[in-house]
Amino acid sequence: MAWVYLGIAGLLEIVWAFSMKQSDGFTRLAPSVVTIIAMIASFALLSISMKSLPLGTAYTVWTGIGAVGAFVVGVAVLGESISPMRVVAALLIVGGLVLMKVSEG
């Protein structure tokens, strides 16, 4: 279950990053509330997953999901630029996540 909680926590990190962007510096109420709720839920689920997963693995996977997910959302939803170098960078993050999971044993 720890991996499930960690995956959901990572997805919630994407949600709060996107809603924070939409909050326009916390000047818009609804996205600001979504940001805060998603942050709290994401941290709570990360904390639960850390009961049985190593710190380095859990935190790296959580931030990796958030980083790559925010990149994808930025490109797909917000129309941010995409370049071969940015795609390679995202793939390197994904590769690191896979190695963390595999090496956890």
- Overall morphology: flat
**Unreliable segments (pLDDT under 50, ≥5 consecutive)?**
none
Helicity level:
over 70%
Radius of gyration: 15 Å
Query: What's the main sheet like?
Result: none
- Find the structural class using helix and strand composition: mainly alpha
List how many beta strands DSSP finds: 0
Order of helices and strands: HHHH
Give the count of structural domains: 1
Subcellular location: Cell membrane
Membrane topology: Multi-pass membrane protein
Keywords: Cell membrane, Membrane, Transmembrane, Transmembrane helix, Transport
Protein name: Guanidinium exporter
What topology emerges from the helices and strands here?
Layout: H1 2-22, H2 29-49, H3 55-76, H4 84-104
Helix pairs in contact: 1-2, 1-3, 3-4
Explained architecture:
The chain crosses the membrane at residues 27-46, 58-79, 85-102. It holds the Pfam family Multi_Drug_Res. This is Guanidinium exporter. This protein starts with a helix and ends with a helix. The protein is mainly alpha-helical and 105 residues long. The longest helix has 22 residues, at 55-76. It has one domain. Helices cover 81% and strands 0% of the residues. It is flat and about 45 Å long. Helix 1 runs antiparallel to helix 2 (29-49) and helix 3 runs antiparallel to helix 4.
Index terms:
single chain, 105 residues, mainly alpha, 81% helix, flat
Task: Briefly characterize the structure.
This protein has helices spanning 2-22, 29-49, 55-76, 84-104. It is mostly helical and 105 residues long.
